[in-house]
Design a protein that fits this description.
Blueprint lengths: L3 H47 L7 H22 L8 H25 L1 H6 L3 H23 L11 H18 L29 H24 L9 H14 L1
């Protein structure tokens, strides 16, 4: 019976270490998934722009608003990410730069269609939505950057691409501003696509329910462990359950 304690303690220690590594890895994977989702959304709205040949840009405006919603949804999720280690920068920086270039290219291409917008009196209509997209993209990158240690991006060429992208985005937006994008006819009254920001997921109730359930499992597990003469170890309920089952077999 004496050999149960060291074996169980070793099992708990290995499981806890593995869990810690998994959380860190998942944080990086989650960050990459967010970047991929924004990139896919950017490509979708780009395809709508490529199909635009003039006339009321209602579909393009609506697709851009949908993209803004996707970017803001990614921002909410980025804010919930765990703090990432500095070395995570190596994994996420290249994709971050690619997303930035894709967003800037879209804004530049929209600005490149300003003559078509002007022919229909739609300069302000598209200028406003591009400014909103710029703000959403910038906030997303800032939210993602906040998950890394302070100054982790300093000197990184990929982050320089993101920083430069902010200026390029502004320049593209300015090309749709009054006096640059000139309406040939009076501005049209087109349907607006109001930006309704997605609400952050309400995980509080779910977490409380999960905590209550796991506490019950953990309490029962600690009683069994204490009955075997072992010190209770504060680990996750899944690890405790496995450890208790292992101890029961040995007894």
């Amino acid at each position: 019976m004496k050999f149960i304690a060291p074996i169980l303690a070793f099992s708990l220690g290995v499981s806890a270490a593995a869990t810690s590594k998994l959380v860190a890895r998942d944080g990086v994977e989650d960050a990459l998934d967010l970047l991929k989702s924004v990139l896919a959304s950017a490509k979708d709205v780009e395809s709508v722009l490529l199909d635009y040949t003039g006339g009321p840009p209602v579909e393009l405006h609506g697709a851009t608003i949908d993209h803004i919603k996707d970017v803001r949804a990614a921002l909410f999720k980025a804010e919930d990410l765990p703090d990432l280690p500095a070395e995570a920068l190596t994994a996420i920086a290249p994709l971050t730069a690619l997303v930035s270039r894709t967003e800037v290219t879209f804004a530049q291409n929209v600005a490149g269609a300003r003559l078509l917008f002007g022919e229909g009196g739609n300069c302000e209509y598209m200028h406003e939505v591009v400014k909103r997209l710029q703000g959403a993209v910038q906030e997303f990158f800032e939210g993602l950057g906040d998950r890394l240690p302070k100054n982790a991006w300093v000197g990184n060429n990929n982050w320089h691409t993101v920083t430069e992208g902010n200026y390029l985005f502004s320049a593209a937006s300015d090309n749709l501003a009054e006096g640059v994008c000139i309406n040939i006819v009076n501005p049209q009254q087109l349907p607006d696509h109001p930006e309704e920001e997605p609400e952050p997921e309400d995980t509080e109730n779910k977490e409380n329910a999960d905590t209550s359930e796991s506490d019950g499992v953990a309490d029962g597990a600690e009683e069994v462990v204490a009955g075997a003469g072992l010190a209770a170890v504060p680990v996750s309920s899944g690890v405790v359950a496995l450890a208790v089952a292992f101890a029961a077999l040995l007894v």
